[in-house]
Design goal:
Length: about 230
């Protein structure tokens, strides 16, 4: 059975407002984040889902529960957490200032005086960007392309295993992980250059085929337009 997957990015968090790197570390949703998510939840309230899932980070869990509680046409039980869909891990940079982090990554890649992540990625490519992030990390714990590719494969496999009898599901994940999925699985990405960062509460729609093949057909759209 083919499964339609609504990938929702969690709502705005405290770390988002403070311009801090937020990977596996967590921070609470802001009031604005919750209010924005309510708009997404209303837009999806009459879309039937066979199930809802989220990453195992609290900001994603809080987001999926808002989606669940607002939905008028779905009978969703306990939310299953899929840790494979948690955010990209940034190692020692977790909790640091975002611009200062990208400047260090740029230096590790041989680029001086640059903290614009899109410019860095488009100069050296996403693969070298991930390598530079791991290199710049003092403990070299940040995920590189090989690790992320492996985890994305595990994520798709895990989702396929739990959705075999489900036609449409909602899954809450994270900005950089959804973007990385988009770079790999969206046909409008060349797999090398950067794509736009998904908005908080946005929806990216994927199709998971019977054979486990995954593709993204809509990326970073407002739920009201679906």
């Amino acid at each position: 059975m083919q499964t339609e997957v609504y990938l929702v990015r969690h709502g705005e968090t405290m770390f988002n407002t403070l311009n801090k790197v937020q990977g596996w570390c967590d921070s609470p949703l802001t009031t604005k984040g919750i209010n924005d998510l309510k708009k997404t939840a209303v837009a999806l309230s009459k879309v039937h889902f066979d199930n809802m899932y989220s990453s195992d980070l609290k900001r994603a869990i809080d987001t999926v529960n808002l989606m669940k509680n607002a939905n008028q046409v779905s009978q969703i039980g306990k939310i299953k957490k899929l840790p494979e869909f948690r955010e990209v891990f940034f190692g020692s940079f977790e909790g640091d200032d975002i611009n200062e982090t990208w400047a260090q990554v740029a230096l590790a890649a041989g680029i001086k005086n640059e903290d614009d992540v899109t410019k860095i990625i488009n100069t050296i490519g996403i693969d070298n960007f991930r390598k530079a992030t791991k290199k710049a990390d003092p403990r070299h714990l940040a995920e590189d392309t090989a690790q992320l590719d492996a985890r994305m494969g595990q994520a798709v496999k895990a989702l396929h295993a739990v959705t075999r009898n489900e036609k449409r599901v909602l899954l809450v994940s994270h900005g950089d992980f959804i973007k990385t999925l988009g770079i790999k699985y969206w046909d409008q990405s060349d797999g090398v250059h950067d794509i736009e960062f998904p908005d908080n509460g946005s929806v990216s729609r994927g199709i998971l085929s019977d054979d486990g093949k995954f593709e993204i057909v809509d990326y970073n759209v407002n739920a009201a337009s679906l």
